Every structure is written in structure tokens, then in C-alpha cells.
Amino acid sequence: MSKEIVYTDQAPAPIGPYNQAVKVTTACGSTTLYVSGQVAIELAPLGDIQAETQKVMENVGAILRAGNMDYANVVKATIFVKDMNNFAAINEVYGRFFTSDFPARETVEVARLPKDVNVEISVIAVN
After folding, report:
1. What is the pLDDT of residues 54-113, one digit of tens each?
2. Distance between CA atoms of 36 and 8, rounded to whole angstroms?
3. For residue 14, what is the DSSP state?
4. How far is Cα 110 from Cα 95, in angstroms, rounded to an integer?
5. Are strands 2-6 and 21-25 parallel, antiparallel or unpaired?
6. For residue 81, what is the domain's CATH number?
7. Overall domain count for the chain
8. The pTM is what?
9. Nearest 10 degrees: Cα torsion 46, 115, 18, 38
10. What InterPro entries does its record include (predicted)?
11. What is the CA radius of gyration of the chain?
């Protein structure tokens, strides 16, 4: 097994002791990319949940590309939201990035997110 740190300047730099993504390749050649939760800190001050979700998904896409993958490789997503009343708006934007064979997913309401954002999304992609 080999482990590679994936980084792109097209998404926010980590704000703690973690990486944007870690790519693991097994001896049989399968590759999994674990993308850390992405937020839209570039949009501060925050307020438009659809614009925030769009930016988060663009950040995820930039990291996927840096790992030589794209949204079609995503098999699992986790969405953390500050207010579940924003679920429909978040889901609408999120859905634009997947056309078929949608990934498995959960959406969880949380009390607070880093930098007081409203949405954070992480994904796992396989090639």
C-alpha cells in the first residue's frame, strides 16, 4: 500500500493538522481518495446557502482533479449542515455535480462548523 498527500491551491489550504486529501493505492492497484471536509471560507461573510454549497462542491472538484479523479469517481459523501431547513437548497446544488450512479451519502445537522460556515462536505472517491 502506498499513501500520497494530495494538495491543490485551487481549494482552501487546511486550517489544522490535516490534508486536503489522502490517496491510497493498494498492491492490487485500486486507488481510493479520501477528501477532507470542504467549506467555503473564501465567501466570507456567508449567507447565501446555494452560493456556499456551490463553492464547497467546486473546492471538492478541484481536489478530485488534483488526485486525478472527478465526481464520477465519488462513492460516498458526507454533508454537515448547520440548519437542516437548508437541506433542499443544498441538495439542489449538490445534485448538479452528479448525473447518474449517485454516491452513498448522509446529511447531518450539527451545532457549529469551522469558521462558522453553514455547510461542509467530504467525499471518498475510488478509481
Report:
1. 999 999 999 999 999 999 999 999 999 999 999 999 999 999 999 889 999 999 999 999
2. 13
3. P
4. 21
5. antiparallel
6. 3.30.1330.40
7. 1
8. 0.95
9. -20
10. RidA, RutC-like_sf, YjgF/YER057c/UK114
11. 14
